[in-house]
Amino acid sequence: MLRIIDNTLTGFDHCLPSKEELQLFCRLLTEIGIDAIEISLTAYERMEQLPEEGKYILRIDYLEDMAEYPGFYRYTCHFYDNLENMIPEIQINDTRELIKLRALNHCKELRIAGLDDLMCNSSDKAMEEIRKSLPNTKIILNPENTYHCASALAVQWLLSYGSDATVSYAGHNNNGATEEVMMALRLAARHKTGKDFTVLPRLTALYEGITGKIIGNKKPVIGKSIFKVESGIHADAMSKDPAIYEAYEPACVGGRAELVIGKHSGSKAVRMKLEELKLPVPDDEGIQRILDFIKGICAVNRSSLCDEEFAEIAVKVGANERG
Prior knowledge:
Elements: E1 3-9, H1 19-31, E2 36-40, H2 41-47, E3 56-59, H3 65-68, E4 74-77, E5 86-92, E6 109-114, H4 123-133, E7 138-143, H5 150-160, E8 164-167, H6 178-189, H7 200-211, E9 228-229, H8 232-240, E10 258-259, H9 267-276, H10 284-301, H11 307-322
Parallel strand pairs: 1-2, 1-8, 2-3, 3-4, 4-5, 5-6, 6-7, 7-8, 9-10
Helix pairs in contact: 1-7, 5-6, 8-9, 10-11
């Protein structure tokens, strides 16, 4: 059984939100299917109490904190003792350091963080070495994202080598992105298909509000523009069968497909947009004149058009033709 730990709440100490926001963040993570939520001591003290839903891991600096803060599903820190409910963690930043793992084969459970350079070598070979070095250990892989491959590495590990990984929302903490890993597992392994991904826009808005960071429009799974279609071949597919080019339905992540008109659009897209906005649809020559005008504007502005801009151009070109 695959198990995903989200550690986003260990990285909010510098922008600590209200307890209500922290509790809501936890509830939304639980709704999308996260198995355990890791939080910092600072975040826990701000929350005052944990939500009833979900399992929680407390990140601690000293073993004494386990007794002072009881009631957690697990604890994690940089100690390697076989303590009940403790997940020890080791940082390995170079695959050449994997030999260190042999000295930790007494650990029942171990989280390996780092391994930024896995994609620079043979990731399959390195993951196999990790598994062979710790044959009796439950390994939690926590790849970091220096080379922008952490999500892919987490998915590769979960599909072929292990059952546990640590990630963070939107790639916070320089980890693999929770939403990307969860979606990849849903598509590739039918993992937790009954969980509700439609809350992702709420989770994203909450994350942006807490951190002050703006999620890129093209960010996989949660970007606001990932379902906007401009090029002609995609526009044609949208009118026939969106599944031709969509890996999953936009609605399942709280989004919707949107036809955008720009310099890459064709006459088919212009016709579809006119019909969508309930504007008069001219003959082929009229549509071509609208398209030529649009391509000129978009080439200068280096951006696509919003619906209002498109409608204004269509009406203007139509009026000129009638005049």
